[in-house]
Amino acid sequence: MTRYTGQTRDWKGPYAAYDLVKELCIALGVITLLAVVLTVLLSSPDEKPSTIAQWSTATPADFESTAVSELDGTSGIAGYGPPYNHAAEGQHAAFLKPQEWLGVSHPIDTPSAYVFEPLATIANDPALQSAIATYKGASASQQKAWSEAYAKALENATVAANGTLRVAAGAYGPVPAMMNALLGLAQTGGLEGNLLRSNQFFQTDYTKPLLFMADGKLLEGRAESEHLLGDQWGMMNETGSYPGQSWLWLYTFWYQIEPFKNSENADILVVLVMTLLSIAFVCIPFIPGVRSIPRWIPVHRLIWREHYSRLR
Questions:
Q1: Which of the four pLDDT bands, split at 50, 70 and 90, describes residue 1?
Q2: d(CA 249, CA 274)
Q3: How do the residues of the chain divide into helix, strand and coil, expressed in percent and rounded to 5?
Q4: Is residue 78 within 8 Å of residue 69, measured between CB atoms?
Q5: Contact 147/68 with Cβ under 8 angstroms?
Q6: 120: CB partners within 8 A, 6+ apart
Q7: How far is CA 110 from CA 51, 92, 297, in A?
Q8: Does pTM top 0.90 for this prediction?
Q9: What's the Rg (C-alpha) of the chain?
């Protein structure tokens, strides 16, 4: 073994000409050409965005069922917790409660946001305004009874030729008048415009309409058709690329096994696991035993076999 003396020695081995600039230009040209050709041949799919108008027209019963759940506070968003309301503490793990710590930054009162405020824009309908006043003036138990009865009736509703719903007669109070008016507003596109109102000059906050559609079956149905649901290992940059980006498999893997699979706090638990794994990956050069694996399993010698063949 040669003893290291701290002094460098002259290189006695062979030399090979290598033009780094030339190689860079060739690589850049090839990549640019491939990018252009593949963009033309395999462009990203241009999926049309879902809208409330599309949803309410295609499946009016699901739209009204979702609107009723927003009205009586039984929807997913109504009971979600921060950052939308105080109905729950949100995702947590032991003492880690990030949603609770950050608080309600985007308050959404579902009856007001999705029913009463949009219907208030229909000021030229005295019957509708009377129905709203009747509902607001009723007791909480009466409101709940009306909403539950109408939601049950919507399960067997039929769609009329003009796009409205027909339900069996029942004790629904003013709820049908409110829901039918909201359905008409949604089918014309007025409801989505109402939900996009904000104090900003550019209307870029799509939180309210997206959450409203998420409480229904529209987005879930589209996600299922594109293999994007959690039990389908669905995470991808673009639709139509089943089963998604391969580098995300480790993240989505945890959602398929216990205790993450059926945990209400699966998101934060998976984030914690991935954080620990990432830290462990960064620390590999400092972990005794693990850092020695390349010497025990010399795969690098196979990859750089030409180099090592010259050293023999």
A1: very low
A2: 12
A3: 55, 0, 45
A4: yes
A5: yes
A6: 132
A7: 19, 24, 59
A8: no
A9: 30
Question: Which amino acid, residue 172?
Answer: Y
DSSP E strands, 158-218 = 158-159, 165-166
Tokens of 234: 């669905």
In sequence order, the 6+-apart residues with CB closer than 8 A to the CB of 58 are: 218
Q: What Cα–Cα distance (Å) separates residue 19 from each residue in 23, 25, 192, 227, 233?
A: 6, 10, 59, 47, 45
Place of tokens 């993450």: 260
According to DSSP, the residues that pair with 158 across neighbouring strands are: 166
pLDDT tens string 252-261: 888 888 999 8
Phi, then psi, of 96 in degrees rounded to 5: -85, 115
What one-character DSSP code corresponds to residue 232?
A: G
Question: What spatial distance separates the first Cα and last Cα of the chain, rounded to whole Å?
Answer: 15
Quote the crossing angle between the two packed helices 207-215 and 218-225, to the nearest 10°: 80
Residues 101 and 167: their CA atoms lie apart, in Å, by 45
Q: What is the pLDDT of residues 70-104, one digit of tens each?
A: 999 999 999 999 999 999 988 899 899 999 899 99
Count of Cβ atoms closer than 10 Å to residue 79 Cβ: 13
Residue of 62, 40, 39 whose CA lies nearest to 222:
62
Residue whose token pair is 């009463």:
116
